[in-house]
Amino acid sequence: MTGSVSTMIIEILTGKFDIPQEEVAQSTVFEDLAVDSLALLEMSLLLEKRLGVSIAEGVLSAQQTIAEAARAIEALGAPMAAGTTL
Prior knowledge:
Helix 1 (2-15) crosses helix 3. The protein is mainly α. The protein has three helices and no strands.
């Protein structure tokens, strides 16, 4: 259920980082949105809190697409990946 984690990432990008919705898609690379390592760290902390998983430094990178980042987080056992609700 990559869509759920991807949706959370997109919500963070558009809400917290004020990136216009039309610039964000599953295939968008963080680097293309000028999302740097500090922003990725902040996003990791927000996702950890929402999903209840630990996201180590380096799991998210500026070269990833949103879909790739969602898959990496799901691989850590994110509850949304299993279809459960928070």
